[in-house]
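OP here, attaching both records as promised.
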Amino acid sequence: MKVKKRGKKEEEPTEEVGTAPSRKVGDEAEIEGDDLELARQLAEAERLVEELTDQLLRSRAELDNTVKRAAREREASTLFASERLMTKLLPVLDSLDQAAKHVEGMDKVRKQLLDVLRTEGLSPIEAKGEKFDPYKHEALMMVESDEDEEGTVTEEVQRGYALNSKVIRFSKVLVSKKR
């Protein structure tokens, strides 16, 4: 912008809105240096992304392999437990074959089978004379009784069993009620 003062023309630096500031020759070298630094940082970031993606894929594959291995080991463990139980039951089967020939041998077979089942953690649930417990007993019917306290198991229709303290079959029972 030119301004006239007392007859003299003076020039003041002008700056127009919307135009880029003027650059000096040294500025171009600085900008090129900044571009090189940004390009280097971008290349480093891309390398890091590629490395982390590769690590993620490897970790996923390792997890999949671990899950499959655990499933195979669980299956093998189940098969081993079944084999062990069957091996223990084979003598009982032999005794049943022998007992079929001799009726009096049935008590021996029953005792032998119960012994094997007990060693595996099976235990009968006591019911008759006990207070009815819905966590151990299944009530089939209520029976009127003057002799037994209300809610007491008067008869066991089918014995219940627990395996390692977990009920696997509830005792089917008749429960007393007052007349």
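Record two, same layout:
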Amino acid sequence: MRDYQAKGYIFESVIWELLKSFGYVNVKTDNVKGRGASHQIDAFGELAFPTAFMYPIRLICECKCFSKNKIELKHLRSFVGVMKDISENYFVSQSNSNNYSKRYTDVGCFFSATSFSKDSQEYAWAHNISIISFQNNSFLKPLIKNIDKFVEIKKQNNELKNKKKIINDFKESEFHNKISDISATIGILDGFYPIALIGTNNWLPNIDSLTELDNLSEIIVAEKISRDSNEYETFFELAIEEEIITFSVPNIIKNKLIKQIDKANNGDTVFTIDVPYIREIEGNNIRRLIKIKVQFKTSE
């Protein structure tokens, strides 16, 4: 096994853990049958929130952990081809047949440890593929570095031989500890774009007022405390009570947000984030939909 393959396998396992952290997605890895072939999918799972007039939503994930290289157009083209083949694998049965396969509404998401090139962003947007980069996330940078360190040690000891073992060894190592310090969930930015919200462990239950008898509101107010852009993406930090939450968006969609922010006055709501998740209270799983209203802060 090459070192880049080992990094990729471990990064996949990290994505599984992050997606599972709030019970929003039932995640696993396996072959998914397409119309023309079966495809090895890095991570996929059914969303736990059903939507009226739609088949169950199945999230299909691609994960790449490059050390320096960006995600290029060719990587998105390949993933779009896989998504198309999977989504067309449905055949109409005769009306008297009981052999009906379960149908899904398949949605694609591409996770990367590095940024996405401009043309790959445009291609992803055109084909309705969500892209999430962890390149500049302050919570995840140490974790990505730990993956690099762990793989380098295993490489020197000639121990890069088995996918299952390399993942288990990482989970049992000191390098895995950073995952327990953070948690993530998927939010919908302004009702149209999925983002990964990253914070300290249990940040979402900590800000959720469900258990407060005098305040059962599903609306939470946040302040935008910083914004940092580079050639490929824009990184945001939000303050919610005592929690710091981070997310990034590709620059292909940042302009809409920037215009809203630049026109805002102190205290204005510049964008919202809808956050579905499942919270366990007294042994019961409660489905919640939190709306985070992000307000403008003048002292940026």
